[in-house]
Amino acid sequence: MRSRFVLLLSLFVVALISMMMVCNSSGIAGERTIRFIGDLDFPPFAFKDDSGYTGFDIELGEAIGRIMGAKVEWVPAGFDLKIYSAALEDQKADAILSALTITAARKNNFDFSIPYFRTTLGIAALNKDKGSALLQLRKRKFEGSKVGAMKGTTGEAWARKNLKAELVLYDSAVDMARTLWEKKLKAIIIDEELLNYIVSCLPYDFAVISRDLNHEVYGIAVKKGNEKLIQEINAALEEIDSTGRYKEIYNRWFGPKRCLPGR
Known about the structure:
Elements: H1 2-26, E1 33-38, E2 47-49, E3 52-54, H2 56-68, E4 71-76, H3 81-89, E5 95-96, H4 104-107, E6 110-112, E7 117-126, H5 130-140, E8 146-150, H6 154-162, E9 166-170, H7 173-181, E10 187-191, H8 192-201, E11 206-210, E12 215-218, E13 221-223, H9 227-242, H10 245-254
Parallel strand pairs: 1-4, 1-5, 8-9, 8-10
Antiparallel strand pairs: 2-3, 6-13, 7-10, 7-11, 7-12
Helix pairs in contact: 2-9, 2-10
């Protein structure tokens, strides 16, 4: 009787171990995760409200994760390409999703997805001051005046190349807009879609005095050589577009839009 009990117990243990192995191999105990790093205090692309993280990039990332069959984790970090690159190298993140403009220089350090957003740079000033601001821009390129730009962005790069102003750099577009409203800046250089969102949500009376300075597209970046992940992300973006999900997300944050850039 004792031998029979030991045999049954042994069989039970073997069966239990086998079940655990099956669960692990099927992903129940090891669910796939994709970790997006980015500036999560950058409305309307990413920010935190009472329900958690939300915004255009957040909704897009979550939609990508669902198609890939992966749980999405968000890794918060201020907009800094050195920090983002180190996180990819150290495997603390899998991809950068942070309103990141695709440029030739950045392609040397990252592989990019197909574009998922299009915008242009513009220069904005107080509406009641737009005449003098435009005159300063055309005659002196804002020499002797303070102009705001987002730190580390293509807006900063454009301003350094094309303006003679004293540049004041910001981590937050909302803070930059507030400073302009407080008359501490003559103008700001900013993505027009972002400016439109800020003006629609905050009681600021701004005027765009120069448009279409630099046409840009955003992409999702991964570690150089990670072709498999880029292919998966691209496939997910294509599906999000073809099913109309991209249009839904875009319209919620920016207004009518048909499809991905270039489609």
